[in-house]
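Work package 3, deliverable 3.1, input record:
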Amino acid sequence: MAKVDTSLVAHLPLFGGVKPEDLDEILREARSARYPKNSAIFEQGADAQSFFLLLHGHVRAAKTTPTGEQIVVRYVAPGETFGLAMAIGAARYPATAIAVDDSVALIWPTSAWPRLVERFPSLAANTLQTVGTRLQESHTRILEMSTQQVEQRVAHALLRLAKQSGKKLDRGIEIDFPISRQDIAQMTGTTLHTVSRILSGWEQQGLVESGRQRIILRDPHGIVVLAERSPDSGAA
Amino acid sequence: MAKVDTSLVAHLPLFGGVKPEDLDEILREARSARYPKNSAIFEQGADAQSFFLLLHGHVRAAKTTPTGEQIVVRYVAPGETFGLAMAIGAARYPATAIAVDDSVALIWPTSAWPRLVERFPSLAANTLQTVGTRLQESHTRILEMSTQQVEQRVAHALLRLAKQSGKKLDRGIEIDFPISRQDIAQMTGTTLHTVSRILSGWEQQGLVESGRQRIILRDPHGIVVLAERSPDSGAA
DNA sequence: GCTCGTTTTTGAGCTATCGCAAACACCCTG
DNA sequence: CAGGGTGTTTGCGATAGCTCAAAAACGAGC
């Protein structure tokens, strides 16, 4: 098992309040693994045997209906935890996790969680905070889906992705991992066709530059304007 | 300040793992208050000075957009906590809480939370579990909003309400607090008009019996069937 | 450099649902 | 028990976005 350098992860929210000398003890319980692009890390419904901390790459968490439709729950960026089923008392993963880029994660066995929490109560507090934040984001998403039109929702989604995983270029901000029209549709509750039409329109207006699984926001501010536009303030 | 009987709350999930003799110490930090029907318990954006445990009644948590549209985040039933902003590290309430019936709640000052958690780590673990469960429910709701039609979403919403706060009658299951078409619309991302039409239809078919802020599921199983019907398996 | 599979684009019609408007029913109050 | 306010029903037109369909663009591998 490769040794993890504590200095690389010490600053993460998960370890807030944990003394540096204790961090090593926590990390000793973890192993790390590499996931090639497009491989599954765990499947919805599978036994939640581990929980994860993403070190490199990007992971898509998606939920599937009985009838096969999918939604993207979120994209995981480096430094974030995922697969926390056990912390919330679920025996099985409620979603599927796929590496969308070559990725590396730290992996703890679910069974280690109770012991870790007992020894380092900050872990529970920190995780509570994380999960709470996600809950709020989730409510915001519900609010958007209930009250906004598709174009605005797509605008919001891209802005969020840019904030979380945007890479600054001279020409604008690029979403730093491969993402398809279909993925965006599954984040916003629409179809890939509609997303394609919207992005085509934006490209015309010089708001974005995009291609196969690639999006650059050329005019982030312009997109903010779109995102906040009231439903009827029509374009020319 | 009225003394709270520990035996009434000892079994609640929040206090799992807390020794009975300690429970009193926790309750000593709380006061209780009565909220008349339709009164606000706290407002979205206000300082999160307290967190709550509902003892009697029902509370609606709703989120408002800048432009005034609302969604219902959830209904709180007796025994559930709400207003947990502090636990997730938010200084202000992200939603408004309204008593939909005469209600009674225990109230702790936000400032007491860190001390309580330090002294009784199970509180953090239990709260994590609660928040985690809500997160999953929230994701389920997003999934439904993305993939199902309005009628199915309304069916799911009513079934959930019935499970959480249903009162068994001979004639069926009654939602045990006042709830309007508008409220249901705000839970499912539609309009009161559409909800009204749907319920009218169901009433014709004998699935429900409903009136002003009142709904009885006369044929819960029939509604389950509706809820699970695939989008196109058309009715006669 | 060509081939194959995937992703994206675009068109055209269709429909579930919205938005508006008006009438109606119910409940509480005085 | 009449009045006023809130919640509900229903009709009708408008439309955002979906569905189906097909072509085009792109990238990876041979």
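Residues 6-144 of chain B form a domain with the Jelly Rolls fold (CATH 2.60.120.10).
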